[in-house]
Amino acid sequence: MFTFKKDYKENEQLRASFNALAKRTFGLDFEDWYQNGYWRENYIPYSMVCDENVAANVSVNLTDMLMNGEVKRLIQLGTVMTDEAFRGQGLIRGLMEEIEKDYAGKTDGMYLFANDSVLDFYPKFGYRKAAEYQYVKAVQNEGMQGADAQNTAGEEERARKVQASAARQLPMQERAQWDKLEAAIESSVHHERFDMIHNNGLYMFYVTKFMQENVYYDAAHDAYVIAEQEGDTLTLHSVFAPNQIRLDDVIRAFGDTVQNVVLGFTPKDTSGFLAREVYEEDTTLFVKGGVFEDFEEQKLMFPTLAHA
């Protein structure tokens, strides 16, 4: 006999069972996220429980987005999993129905990222496949040495300041460091055309777990940057600063070895960037709701750090 449970993060038995299933399914453990205080009200597991153990789960992540200057109330579904012993019994369908019942008419849209084995499942609930567009650029001639090529004194001065305060790595291993970053997130202006808001817990999920070595500080702009560099390619996931800054200046702060830049978000200013359709193996975006009617036309992408 199955019992439906939701929003039970304070229940130690169910939270431990949820974590155990997440470990077996995805290799993820949410316990440290909870203990550190970042599992907040945005993340709500919907589970079928058998003998006080989670048999299946679909999590609701309340992910408000600032879309072209307007707040859109969105819901992302994730952590979709069923214990091997209970598969084939329609448990996920039942959870999807519970979520529909709770949120129908209360959001601007819903979305999720599905693997290839379930592409026929989500359309039954009104979802459609959607394409995302990622912004990239080549910057061979725009490294830190590029100040000499600038045409104006203002540009030369900007490049000089950036060069003098190159981005330095800030390992995210202690509470004090996490608190400073969260404060920076809170005080930041928006550099994205499609930006997650009201969900610092999801940002902190990444930087306190997988991305502890991927946070940088650019003193020239009082900017925290979450980025990865592999060879000559720089991937910018997020930029948090109290004032608007040019992405070219952020890029220069990472040095003249950077020749290619990939953005993990949709920038406000796309000048100089090429938009390319996102292809990720075994991952398909599904969306539903009127807010997504022109999603592809606008060439948007969900921020990489907004994936739950």
Query: How helix-rich are the residues, as a percent range?
Result: 10-25%
Helix run count = 7
Average pLDDT, all residues: 92
What does the largest sheet look like?
Answer: 7 strands, mixed
Strand order within the widest sheet? 1-2-3-6-7-17-8
Q: Rg, please?
A: 21 Å
Number of strands: 17
Q: Which structural category do the helix and sheet elements fall into? A: alpha+beta
**Poorly predicted runs:** 142-150
What fraction of the residues are assigned to beta strands by DSSP? Answer: 25-35%
Q: Termini separation (Å)?
A: 29 Å
SSE topology string: EHHEEEEEHEEEHEHEHEEEHEEE
Shape: globular
What do these coordinates show?
This protein is of the alpha+beta class and 308 residues long. Helices cover 23% and strands 29% of the residues. The chain is built from seven helices and 17 strands. The strands form three sheets. A seven-stranded mixed sheet has the order 1-2-3-6-7-17-8, with helices on both faces. Strand 12 and strand 13 form a beta hairpin. The chain is globular, with a radius of gyration of 21 Å. It starts with a strand and ends in a 20-residue tail after the last strand. The model is unreliable at 142-150 (pLDDT under 50).
Name the features.
single chain, 308 residues, alpha+beta, seven-stranded mixed beta sheet, 7 helices, 23% helix, 29% strand, globular
